[in-house]
Amino acid sequence: MSTLSERILLGTAGEFVDREVDRAYAHDGTGVLTLEAWHEMGTHTVAHPERVYLLFDHIAPANSSTTAGLQAELRTFARSMGLHFCDVGGGICHQVMGEGSALPGEIIVGADSHTCTLGAFGAFATGVGATDMAAIWVSGKSWFRVPETIAIQLDGHLQNPAEAKDLALTYVGRLGMDGATYRSIEFVGDGVAGLSMDSRQTVSNLAVETGAKTGLFYADEVTKRYLSESGRKTAIQHPEECRYEKEMGIDLDDIVPVVAVPPRVDSVRPAGDLLGLPLDQVFIGTCTNGRYDDLERLAEILKGKKVRVRTVVAPASRDVLLRAAGTGVIADIVQAGCVLLPPGCGPCLGAHMGVIGEGEICLSTANRNFRNRMGVGGEIYLSSVATAATSALAGELAVREG
Amino acid sequence: MQIHGKAVCLGEDIDTDMIIAGRYLRTKDRSLWATHAFEDLDPALAGRLEGSVIVAGKNFGCGSSREQAPVALKEAGVLAVIAPTFARIFFRNSINVGLPVIESGCECVEGEDIMVDLDGGEVQTGGRSYPIRPLSPRMREILHAGGLVAYWSDKR
Fold first, then answer.
1. B-chain residues within 8 Å CB-CB of A29?
2. What pLDDT is recorded for position B1?
3. What pLDDT does B99 receive?
4. Quick one: which of A128, A190, A262, A365 has the fewest CB in 10 Å?
């Protein structure tokens, strides 16, 4: 009997396999070096353009003429080769792939470390670098070492104000930044059924922060329902009795609001320990927490009030933005004094639109708090949407009442 | 394949933002990445990398998938990186760009001579020898070809 990774990769843990890649994607950041490597490989062909996606999200729209020039090259390439292309404003690559393409059981490779997000759909989804991606463009295939698996058994239900991000930070804190290196994680147990697809993507998104190749959920009725909304069909994936390298149990009822203290994602402490921490900026968005559920929760907390610190909000995709605009969520957020950014990665990687200054502190719903990441000399604390929203209203770190 | 260099010692969990910061990625100018390598860790470090072998703590290269990280080190003249463990995307990227990455728990003395014998499977430094965890056959072939582009061209 096999783990989900073994079933999808058709191999046993430890084995090296060559496999066709069902979907391969890159963005404006990693696409540039991918295109260079592809040119150097010299075939000038893409084996399966219908399986290849190029999506602009990292610096979208461009912040300088240099960036615009690099993007123009990629845009021309995508169009000339007949690739799927998503221009600026479409949203974050992982989110867009999840909204319209990813399917359970697929092998999905992205030139971005957070490709593991799509493990939420029961796909073996993992990140690679530019040259590996170029080889996939040329051959349609890649090699994989079938990973050993760590099972995280979830029981119970998240209790307000705890949310999926608190669960994600909690398991990262427990496993550590290299606790799952070369391995995959499977989220199993009765607690899974109560997690929405948006929540599952948040949980899978942080798998790479433990070094994992991917973080998988088995496709169930929740997955099926989500996919059917965009006309996709799937069979349910039933877990089998199998051998996990390690098992860890988490009772969702025990999860409390937490914060990851810079500069480590695994430096996780109860948010209650840091009350009153002065903040210069709050950022809500990214492939971790920029989905509809997140914006709805943000609006629910901010509605009719005003933020007391500059607060930057970036929807994860155009679809998220449109839905949130339609339901009044965007109006509530903007009326509360937040700055709305176009769909994309926003200031997460410190490139534009919300970079922080020397000595400034940002409370962010993103997934990385590495030194200088959002701006030289600035510090990043990571939290859930509820903690970020409550803190934005307080002007300092605060926790929502349960 | 034997590599001889001078040891540069680094700590644990060095992330890719630390190797090359995001603010330097929007270019094709590889020399720029070499100049700014490890800038946020120690601005003077890039100047000491020519002919070096980096000996780091566990989980070297964690974080993003940016291939500019191993390229920056290679362009700066780093001959090899030794660490007890690496983040997997960085590890794969390094082999793909022809930068030897070696899993070994070797002790480090700054500036000391260090010899890596990839075929013999050992690191020698400070009068001691340390075993290397062998690369998979495929990764060894890619590294010996000088990277994935060259490996790919050889296969055609």
1. 25, 66
2. 84
3. 98
4. A190
Q: Does domain A153-254 have CATH number 3.40.47.10?
A: no
Instruction: Measure in Å the smallest separation between the Cα of B147 and chain A Cα atoms.
Output: 9
Cα Rg for chain A, rounded, in angstroms? 20
Domain count, chain B: 1
B88 to A372: CB separation less than 8 angstroms, yes or no: no
Residue of chain A with shortest Cα separation from B59 = A178
| A window 151-180, beta carbon within 8 A of B | 177-178
Residue B134 has pLDDT above 90, yes or no: yes
* Same-fold call for A4-145 versus A260-394: yes
How far, in Å, CA of A116 to CA of A123, rounded?
A: 9
Predicted confidence band at B145 (pLDDT cuts at 50, 70, 90)? very high
pLDDT in the model for residue A402: 74
Average pLDDT over residues B126-148: 95
The residue type at A82: G
CATH architecture for residues A260-394: 2-Layer Sandwich (3.30)
pLDDT of residue B50: 98
Q: What is the CATH number of domain A4-145?
A: 3.30.499.10
Token pair for A347 = 């200031």
Question: In this complex, which of B28, B58, B92 lies closest to A129 when CB atoms are compared?
Answer: B92
For residue A189, the model assigns a pLDDT of 98
Q: Any idea where the domains of chain A sit in the sequence?
A: 4-145, 153-254, 260-394
- What is d(CA A184, CA A280) in angstroms, rounded to the nearest whole number? 37
A54's tokens: 């190029």
SS3 A3: coil
List the single best residue of A33, A45, A266, A353 to mutate versus B (max B Cβ within 10 A): A33
User: Position of tokens 């020397």?
Assistant: A358
Q: What pLDDT, in 10s, does the model give residues A105-154?
A: 999 999 999 999 999 999 999 999 999 999 999 999 999 999 999 999 99
Which residues 251-310 of A are in CB contact (within 8 Å) with B? 264
Do the chains contact at A178 and B97, CB–CB below 8 Å?
no
ipTM of the complex, rounded to two decimals: 0.96
Confidence band of A337 (pLDDT split at 50, 70, 90): very high
Range of the domain at B15: 2-155
Instruction: Name the minimum distance, in Å, from the CA of B64 to any CA of chain A.
Output: 5
Whichever domain contains B95, its CATH number is 3.20.19.10
The closest alpha carbon to A194, from A225, A158, A162, belongs to A158
d(CA A120, CA A293): 15
Tokens of A145: 């070492």
User: DSSP string spanning A29-70?
Assistant: TTHHHHHHHHHHH-----S-GGGEEEE--TT-S-SSHHHHHH
Confidence check: pLDDT of B156 > 80: no
